[in-house]
């Protein structure tokens, strides 16, 4: 393989200062936001709120039978989603599990196209054939959307190998849940990524539950970032409810990977606000656990902190919330007005090259 342990490229990193923008919050009134651009902070608040409203509308669409199949929401993980995506360039590649609606929006896909995919319409990211778990959009760098737990990890590692092989300057981010770190492919992929010094950042969204199983019941070492040490790569744990902490940690590790520093493992700890999927009432959860999740709500807390720091006032916050609601509603209207795929196209996207829908044929057989 044409990979070496020393990828070394000129630094193309945008500095933390330039990411934070100009006109930064100053002095003691800014609290923990000192040095941050108020516009950018409001932008984070808007995007997190948009994802929340979008997911609420998705849940509603599911109960109205507008959305079929499985449907897993990012409720409670919005700070992690926005913080991670702000560390990536548009050209960087993202692989996720099935809980990816918020990532699609934060990576730059129009909310209407994301909702249309949930509604199974031709205007969706995967022309309506993928649904909730299989969004794909080359232009914005979202390379799926995977329903097999851990299925995205070897693919993301392979994409990082392709980038390295071509001496590209992109970075791959591979998102996964806490439950996924016990899949064999997790260990195989981290091992090879470290051996070959590949530009990939593995991100574990530790929402402390894999369906109904808590982390401490499924992982002998519940501090998941520590697994990085087995593969000689940096491992970090960050508060996934803190959008700035996530952004800063992810930016550091992404730029390290971009500049030849190799892979890393980032663990973002947050809470799942609702069930595993829309149809899961989460009866296995204790009242304390539900209450703890509510208290940790990243949006409510960020809103209060921004108001306290003088970055937002009540009116501006309410205006941003109205805007986010209107955008989520517009996404639903766009999806509802979009056409269903023609049934004759059902087998069009099964294989990269056309293969007749005939069980006696194999993919390598001649088509005609
Ligand atoms: C290989 C495989 N095994 C089992 C499942 C069923 N399954 C779907 S999601 C899930 C839990 C994964 O939990 P986690 O990785 O923590 O992600 P989260 O749902 O919390 O985002 C399981 C076991 C599956 N989809 N694929
Ligand atoms: Mg989980």
Automatic annotation (TrEMBL):
GO biological process: pyruvate decarboxylation to acetyl-CoA
Gene coding for it: pdhA
Catalytic EC class: oxidoreductase
Residue stretches of biased makeup (Polar residues): 1-15
Ranges of compositional bias, category Gly residues: 24-33
Entries under SUPFAM superfamilies matching the protein: Thiamin diphosphate-binding fold (THDP-binding) (SSF52518)
Quaternary organization: Heterodimer of an alpha and a beta chain.
Keyword Chaperone listed: no
Cofactor(s) essential for the protein: thiamine diphosphate
Protein name: Pyruvate dehydrogenase E1 component subunit alpha
Domain Dehydrogenase E1 component: residue ranges: 47-343
Catalysis: reaction(s): N(6)-[(R)-lipoyl]-L-lysyl-[protein] + pyruvate + H(+) = N(6)-[(R)-S(8)-acetyldihydrolipoyl]-L-lysyl-[protein] + CO2
Pfam families (alphabetical): E1_dh
Keywords recorded for this protein, A-Z: Oxidoreductase, Pyruvate, Thiamine pyrophosphate
Function: The pyruvate dehydrogenase complex catalyzes the overall conversion of pyruvate to acetyl-CoA and CO(2).
E.C. number: 1.2.4.1
GO MF annotation: an example: pyruvate dehydrogenase (acetyl-transferring) activity
Location of the region described as Disordered in the Swiss-Prot/TrEMBL record: 1-35
Oxidoreductase recorded as keyword: yes
PANTHER family hit by this protein: PYRUVATE DEHYDROGENASE E1 COMPONENT SUBUNIT ALPHA, PYRUVATE DEHYDROGENASE E1 COMPONENT, ALPHA SUBUNIT BACTERIAL AND ORGANELLAR
InterPro entries: DH_E1 (IPR001017), PDH_E1_Alpha_Subunit (IPR050642), Pyrv_DH_E1_asu_subgrp-y (IPR017597), THDP-binding (IPR029061)
């Amino acid at each position: 393989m044409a990979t070496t342990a020393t990828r070394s490229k000129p630094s193309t990193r945008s500095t933390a200062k330039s990411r934070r923008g100009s006109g930064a919050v100053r002095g003691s009134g800014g609290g923990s936001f000192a040095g941050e651009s108020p516009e950018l902070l409001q932008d984070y608040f808007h995007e997190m709120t948009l994802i929340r409203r979008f997911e609420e509308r998705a849940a509603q669409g599911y109960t109205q039978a507008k959305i079929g199949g499985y449907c897993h929401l990012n409720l409670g993980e919005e700070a992690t989603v926005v913080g991670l995506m702000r560390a990536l360039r548009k050209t960087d590649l993202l692989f996720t599990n099935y809980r990816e609606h918020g990532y699609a929006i934060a990576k730059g896909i129009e909310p209407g196209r994301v909702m249309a995919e949930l509604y199974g319409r031709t205007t969706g990211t995967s022309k309506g054939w993928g649904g909730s778990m299989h969004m794909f959009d080359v232009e914005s760098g979202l390379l799926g959307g995977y329903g097999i737990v851990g299925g995205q990890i070897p693919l993301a590692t392979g994409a990082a190998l392709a980038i390295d092989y071509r001496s590209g300057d992109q970075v791959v981010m591979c998102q996964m849940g806490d439950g996924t770190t016990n899949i064999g492919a997790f260990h195989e992929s981290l091992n090879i990524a470290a051996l070959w010094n590949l530009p990939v950042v593995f991100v574990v969204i530790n929402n402390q539950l894999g369906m109904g199983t808590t982390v401490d019941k499924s992982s002998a070492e519940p501090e998941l970032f520590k697994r990085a040490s087995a593969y000689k790569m940096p491992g970090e744990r960050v508060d996934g409810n803190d959008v700035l902490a996530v952004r800063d940690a992810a930016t550091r590790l992404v730029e390290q990977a971009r500049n030849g520093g190799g892979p890393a493992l980032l663990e973002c700890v947050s809470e799942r606000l609702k069930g595993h999927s829309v149809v899961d009432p989460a009866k296995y959860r204790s009242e304390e656990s539900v209450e703890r999740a509510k208290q940790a709500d990243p949006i409510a807390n960020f809103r209060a902190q921004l108001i306290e720091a003088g970055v937002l006032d009540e009116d501006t916050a309410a205006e941003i919330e109205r805007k986010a609601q209107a955008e989520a509603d517009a996404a639903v209207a766009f999806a509802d007005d979009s056409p269903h795929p023609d049934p004759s196209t059902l087998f069009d996207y099964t294989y990269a090259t056309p293969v007749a829908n005939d069980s006696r044929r194999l993919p390598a057989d001649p088509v005609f």
